[in-house]
Amino acid sequence: PTWGQTGTKTQAREHLGDRLIHIGGPDELQWAKQNGVKPDVLVACVRDPLDRAYSVWRDRIVKKQRHDWDDPSFDAYIDRLHSLDPESDCGKHSRPQCEWLTEDWEQYDFCVATQDFDQRLKRYLDPLLKTDLPTIRANHSGWDRPATDQHRLNKITEFYNQDYRAWNHVWGWFDGQNH
User: Fold this and answer.
1) pLDDT at position 94 over 80
2) Which of 15, 103, 112, 164 would be 176's cystine partner, CB 3.0–4.6 Å?
3) pLDDT in the model for residue 155
4) Residue 175 pLDDT grade (very low, low, confident, very high; cuts 50, 70, 90)
5) 3-class secondary structure for the chain?
6) Shortest CA distance to 51 belongs to which of 103, 99, 116, 135?
7) Among candidates 16, 100, 9, 21, which has minimal Cα distance to 55?
8) CA within 13 Å, CB half, 4
9) pLDDT at res. 2
10) How distant is the alpha carbon of residue 104 from its chain centre?
């Protein structure tokens, strides 16, 4: 598919014509290095961990019900963060981004926060690819964030501490103290 044929960030980051190669995780990145494969563009798209936690809860727990919990509340999800099975659907979607992006942000040609994806990544790729890429629709559920307490916000900060440390250096908008 080409960029215009993909409607979501997930689909678009996987393949852009024959120019952009998606390296999705540490194993793929290691394979590329070992085999002398250099993607045309290596981009890291990073989401604020608190936004990710809300999104995983809304999509995987509430909407798709990919759990077997008696209590599907946001607070119950946060209480389970440290004990999620890393191979489960919720575990894979909840894992810290450093697990697949690594902490070595300098290896990327471009780093972008998901909320700036359309504006900044398009501005970066258009001249590089000599094209005018269409905008990418964002996945917005229209839900408000559920209320929670400071104790659970601290749990999120602790769980995603590696992400906050690694990616704060790039943007400065990751602040584990300000939710």
Assistant:
1) yes
2) 164
3) 94
4) very low
5) CCHHHCCCHHHHHHEECCCEECCCCHHHHHHHHHCCCCCCCCEEEECCHHHHHHHHHHHHHHHCCCCCCCCCCHHHHHHHHHHCCCCCHHHHHHCCCHHHHCCCHHHCCEEEEHHHHHHHHHHHHHHHHCCCCCCCCCCCCCCCCCCCCHHHHHHHHHHCHHHHHHHHHHHCCCCCCCC
6) 116
7) 9
8) 4
9) 37
10) 16
Tokens representing 64? 């798709």
Nearest to 161 by CA among 6, 10, 50: 50
* Span 13-34, pLDDT tens digits: 443 444 444 555 656 667 777 8
The pTM for the full model equals 0.71
The number of residues in the chain equals 179
